[in-house]
Amino acid sequence: MDVSIIIVNWNTKDDLRAAIESCYAHSAGLDIELLVVDNGSTDGSGEMVRTDFPQATLIANTENVGYTRAGNQGITAASGRYYLMLNSDAQLTAGCLAELVRIMDTHPDIGTATPQLQYGDGSAQEAAHKFPTLSSRLLPAALVSSAERITDETPEDGATFYPVDWVLGACQIVRAETVAQVGMMDERIFMWYDDADWCLRMAKAGWRRVVATDALCVHEARKSAEALPPLRRNLQVSMAEFTYFRLHHGRTKTAILWATRTLYSAVKVGVLALGTLLTLGLYGSLRRLCIFNWRRLLFHLRHVADIILRDPQPYRADGVK
After folding, report:
1. How much is the average pLDDT of 189-217?
2. What is the mean pLDDT of residues 293-316?
3. Alpha-carbon separation of residue 127 from 158, 163, 217 (angstroms)
């Protein structure tokens, strides 16, 4: 078996259908298997897979167990030399999978690779980043993306890829041998930053991570995430970031990051609350921003022990609306 394609899905039936169709349409010449791990969808996703794609393997969870746990379920059931972790809102294009396999076959020190990514409208999408560091994450939010952006996209001599720190998991091919060495995705992260964590463990073990310049995947980012209330999604991302820092940078740096984020939230709440009072609450957007940041501040305060002291656990933000 060349490639086991693993798609984790949560309530994205139409996108999932397009993703599966793209896999079967663009896998000529390769021996593939397709595994869909459905996280308790209520939109008929599982029934669609059973009816329309009986050749695919469906692993149906009764609840949303998180991206990492579901992805690991797929990896455990897979038999390919390579695992392709494909988001349910991503679609392979002609030649994409073949090029990824070719790169992996001809460069045995590469542990993972991703194609170029683009949105459905054809605009470019970043496929990789520099690893998050304390210095970059203490910058104002508007500057973090620039600080961690890949600036050197020069392929090696004669190669069709360039090396990076962290490839995005939207369409990520991983060598089975690499997973056997560094382990599967860390289930202490519910979702978000799982790809950064995985790639950093690969880097520590000596595996290269690359972006393929001659392969393309269309990715409509965050389709599942958009179904979540904004605050719930925001808090999931925040806890995943803190967990990443705990796992790779220790308690002290995580505490510094927590303190900075907590102070920043407190200042925002103060400024927004003052603005709401001065405008007599007439601007609903100002009031909503104040409430949003107040709830973020409460999250930081309530979960300080979880973030800094206790062993990391997957955080779903249950009950947050």
Report:
1. 97
2. 95
3. 21, 12, 10
Mean pLDDT of 299-311: 96
CATH architecture of residue range(s) 3-225: Alpha-Beta Complex (3.90)
For residue 71, is it left (φ>0), alpha (ψ between -120 and 50) or beta? Answer: alpha
Residues with Cβ within 8 Å of residue 141, at least 6 apart in sequence: none
**Token code pair at residue 280:** 């007599």
3 state DSSP class of 310: coil
Which residue from 204, 172, 198, 171 is spatially nearest to 185, judged by alpha carbons? Answer: 198
Backbone angles phi, psi at 5, to 5 degrees: -90, 120
* CA-based torsion, 209, 213, 218, 223: positive or negative: positive
- Predicted local confidence at residue 280, as pLDDT: 75
Q: How is residue 149 annotated by DSSP?
A: B
Distance CA 317, CA 242 (A): 14
The first and second tokens of residue 138, run together, are 């203490």
Question: Residue 70: how many CB atoms within 10 A of its CB?
Answer: 26
Cα distance between residue 127 and residue 99, in whole Å: 16
Please report the beta strands in the chain, taking only residues with DSSP state E, as ranges in sequence order: 3-9, 32-39, 57-61, 82-87, 90-92, 110-118, 124-125, 128-129, 161-163, 166-167, 171-175, 208-219
- Whole-model pTM: value is 0.93
Amino acid of residue 262: T
Question: Rounded CA gap, 197 and 18, in Å?
Answer: 28
Cα separation of 39 and 191, whole Å?
A: 13
- Residue count of the chain, please give it: 321
Contact 21, 52 (CB under 8 A): no
- Measured between its terminal Cα atoms, the distance across the chain in Å is 44
Select the more confidently predicted residue: 278 or 16.
Answer: 16
Cα 299 to Cα 260: distance, rounded to the nearest angstrom: 14
Element (H, E) at 260: helix 230-278
